[in-house]
Amino acid sequence: MRFEGKVALISAAGAGIGRATAGIIGREGGTVVAVDVDQGALDRLTTEIAGAGGRALGIRADALDAASVEDTVRRALDTHGRIDILVNAVGGSTIIPRPAANIDELTLEEWQKLLHFNLTGTFLFSHAVIPVMKRQKSGKIVNLASIAGRGLSRESSSAYATAKGGIIALTRKLAFELGPHGVTVNAIAPSLTLSERIRPHWERRSAEGQQAEIKRTPLGRVATPDDQARVICFLASSDADFVTGVTIDVTGGQ
Q1: Which of 51, 99, 115, 181 could make an S-S bridge to 93, C-beta 3.0–4.6 Å?
Q2: From the candidates 3, 111, 117, 160, which is the catalytic residue?
Q3: 105-145: per-residue pLDDT in tens?
Q4: Is 160 one of the annotated active-site residues of the chain?
Q5: pTM surpassing 0.70?
């Protein structure tokens, strides 16, 4: 039970990688504070975790709103007294009509929207939780970057690549800032992952397009949310106590 006695706050926990991460932590003894804008998804998740013998609190909140984030962290502390793990899972490329648009096809509004969506939530939750972890003299933060942030995604815009490159840089910088306080900061960089949000886009691809993606992956398949969540949970566990400032590519070898 890697997470016995630990409290994990997970943003975007209602679906995809965030949900898969919450499920693992809940099954392995952790207390999950699940945050999402979708109350129904939170209710289903917390019921599922409780049914498996775990503990979970669902909080409907907007990760892009400072007051909402501060209130969420306050409620988590009022209920559990500490926050040991922060997983910043808010982000994505599909909030604009053409996620793979070239730079000369992007509007300024789309550029700003992608930067805001992929960077602001990570900043706000980190800003709110880090003082707690400093007082505790311990904590683990795991951020979600992307292979797009490495410049390796054919299906993502330059705005998304820039935002996820920013997550990689932020992760490294925070590791230097927080190491002396006993806090580790790491990230994962997923390849295409068949979450609930991404699966419809995948299914609209031609069979040839799907096979081309699979052929780019040495392990011969597309990632699932569980593939990503298992690496997040490694970084959030005591197994990674001497790991900080790294971004692990979870790409099947791409």
Answers
A1: 99
A2: 160
A3: 999 999 999 999 999 999 999 999 999 999 999 999 999 99
A4: yes
A5: yes
